[in-house]
Structure formats: structure tokens, C-alpha cells
Amino acid sequence: MPNKYKKEELSCELYSNKFFMLCMAGGALACGTTHTFVTPLDLVKCRLQVDPRKYKSIFKGFFVSFREGGLASLVKGWAPTFFGYSLQGAVKFSGYEYFKYKFAGMIDEESAYLYRTYLYLTASASAELLADVALCPFEAVKVRMQTTPYYTSQMREAMPHMLATEGFGVFYKGIVPLWARQVPYTMMKFASFEKTLEYLYAKLVPKPRDECTKGEQLIVTFTAGYIAGVLCAIVSHPADTIVSKLNKEPGSTIGGIMSEVGLLGIWRGLTARIIMIGTLTGLQWFIYDAFKVYTGMPRPPPPTMPLSLKKKLEGNK
């Protein structure tokens, strides 16, 4: 992949150890804050998935949750959300940058450009597999707290209780469906973001990226991130429903859940998820890119065709 970017004062070398450490910090900030911010919507979405007869719709879910527990009930599960997604974001964003760099180095520059979408997909999938190992225990605690009536609202009580009554395995019971949800989600999140960013700068932004101000670049980043988020929500929603029900109901299985909810029921809560994930993903990319600007990190532009490939194509005309 080409590493050309406008010369400016930078805080670290591209793909140096410091660069990847800063990517971890930026990823933790982007994911931890945004997921915590949408905790009320996530709570209603999870409850709608596991008890559709009671909550029925997004608005009904908010009303019932507020009526039963007040404002405090709408932020139930914020702590495991914050810690879990901060860890996940740190591993995911830094891992993506690392694997994209490493995988691109395994092939020549022309192939890296021509097959860059496959690089985005494999790098993001590799990063997410690792990130979910960090997230899974916190996701299990979050869903249990949000969907079990009268369950404790304190993570420091819920986690030891789950460990004592169900064993360590309870924290990773949902790892396979979590991978099924998060890996396609992340592959879509990174690949569609990269391709959308390329398209926006090539077709819609009226001037080259290096002539845009940092603020203008961040607006383009948010736009590309939001579009990517909508696509992410759609491809990952069925697995999200399964994860919610697995973590709520001890002893449940994927096959049993599929039989219970059916093909239509597995899409329940999609509207809430599109709103949540679209906004969340757009904000994540905005925060991550803004963090890079603030800390003076290298921010390479979208890849351009290598000169050698251009000459080959021109010679074939």
C-alpha cells in the first residue's frame, strides 16, 4: 500500500511502535465513549430482542423501561459497556492498522493496490477475532444486567456472581455468535469505510484531500463512517439477536433460539440497531481521526494507483 502523505510535523513515524500504541489509545477512546453514549438505545434493543411481547417496539421499550426503573434503568450496563468496548476498540483499531501494514508488505505494491479491498477485509477480520476475546466477558455481563429482571445494576457484583454460579465458561459462552456478529460487522465497517472514503474524495469532494482543512477532512470521515455503519448494522444483526438471547438465558443454544424466534424474528430490533450503529460508527471514525489530528499522527490519504501500474495500463491501450 502506498505510504505517501503530505509532509508535516508528526509525533511519530508511520507504522512505528509509538504509532500503534497511539492507535490503541485512539481506538479505545472512539469505541468506549460511543458505545457508552448509546447505552439506553442498546438496552432497549436487547430487551426488544429477548422479550418482544413485553417491549414490542423501540418507543414502547423506552417507555416500559423508564416506567419500571426511572432514568437509572436506561443506563443499566454502562460500566461493562465502557470497559469492554474500550478494550475491544484498542485491539480492533490498532490491530487493523498493524495487519493492513503487514499483509500489504507480503505482496508487491501493484497487487496491494489492485487487491486492497481484500487487504481491508482480511486485516479487519484478523483484528476483530482478537478484539472479541477481550470484549466477550463484558458483553456477557452487560446483556445479563440489561435483560434479566431485578438483576444487579453493578458490574462489580454481577461479574463475581456469574463466575460463582455458572463458572468461567459463562463469560465465553457467546464467543462464537459474538464472532459471527462482530467479524462481518468489522469487515464491513473497515472495508466499506475505506472504499466510501475513496469515492467521496474522488467523486464528491470538490478539491483534493491535501487542499482540504482538517475540519473538512473530519466531516468527510464522519460521512463515510455513517454510511459504513448502516451497512454494518444490517449484516451483523441476526448474530446480534442470538448473542442477546444466549447471554440472557442460561442453557440456551443457537439451534434452540433459531427455532424459537424464526427467520423473521431474528431481524427484530433492526431499526434501533441501524440508528444506533450508523451514528456510533460515524462517531467512532470521527473521534479516531480527530485523535490522530490532535496527537499529530500520520494520516495517509486514500491509496492511489502506483505509477508503474499506470504505465502498464497505458501501454496496453
TrEMBL record:
Q: Where in the cell is it found?
A: Mitochondrion inner membrane
Provide the function of this protein: Transport of phosphate groups from the cytosol to the mitochondrial matrix.
What are the entry keywords?
Answer: Membrane, Mitochondrion, Mitochondrion inner membrane, Repeat, Transit peptide, Transmembrane, Transmembrane helix, Transport
Q: Any idea what this protein is called?
A: Phosphate carrier protein, mitochondrial
Source organism per UniProt: Parnassius apollo
- One GO CC annotation, please? mitochondrial inner membrane
Renumbered ranges of Solcar repeats: 18-102, 115-199, 216-294
**Topology relative to the membrane:** Multi-pass membrane protein
Instruction: Give the UniProt record's GO annotations in the biological process aspect.
Output: mitochondrial phosphate ion transmembrane transport
Q: Which residues form a coiled coil?
A: none
- InterPro entries per the UniProt record, alphabetical: MCP_transmembrane, SLC25A3/Pic2/Mir1-like
Q: Which branch of life, at top level?
A: Eukaryota
Q: Does the keyword Electron transport apply?
A: no
Protein family membership:
Belongs to the mitochondrial carrier (TC 2.A.29) family.
What is an example of a GO molecular function annotated in this UniProt entry? phosphate transmembrane transporter activity
Q: Which PANTHER family match?
A: SOLUTE CARRIER FAMILY 25 (MITOCHONDRIAL CARRIER PHOSPHATE CARRIER), MEMBER 3, LIKE-RELATED-RELATED, SOLUTE CARRIER FAMILY 25 MEMBER 3
Q: Would the keyword Membrane turn up in this protein's UniProt record? A: yes
